[in-house]
Hints:
It is a single chain. The relative contact order is 0.16. By secondary structure, the chain is α+β, with helices and mostly antiparallel strands. Strands 1-2-3 form a 3-stranded antiparallel beta sheet, with no helix packed on it. Helices cover 17% and strands 48% of the residues. It has a domain at 34-104. It has one helix at residues 2-21, and strands at 38-55, 60-81, 87-103.
Amino acid sequence: MLNKFASVLVAVGMLSVLLVSGCGPSADLSLKFSPDHTARYKATTETTKLFRFDQPNLGKLKEEQTQSLIEMDFTQTIQSVDADGNATARITVNDLKIDIVNYGGGNDSLRKENRQGAS
């Protein structure tokens, strides 16, 4: 009984969203490029991966964690725009930083001897 009521409630909610969604004004979301327009952007991506291999009958546990951080600073200059609004752009990478750290593995990048520039 409760499942039927929940299903009917969800259906009514979805129907009301569909009916109301077309009532508002529309907006043009296309980009309007102009030649020689320049913009500078910074994009950052960060990921963490965890690896865990557990063998309880042997009493062994192996864990590794890899973290990566990628930062890119770039400039976009619009070269030309065709009649349909499609643009040709020159993209220049100003700065690129890649930092990858592996914790707990045989290639532990936190150890002093594995770090770049370590003495």
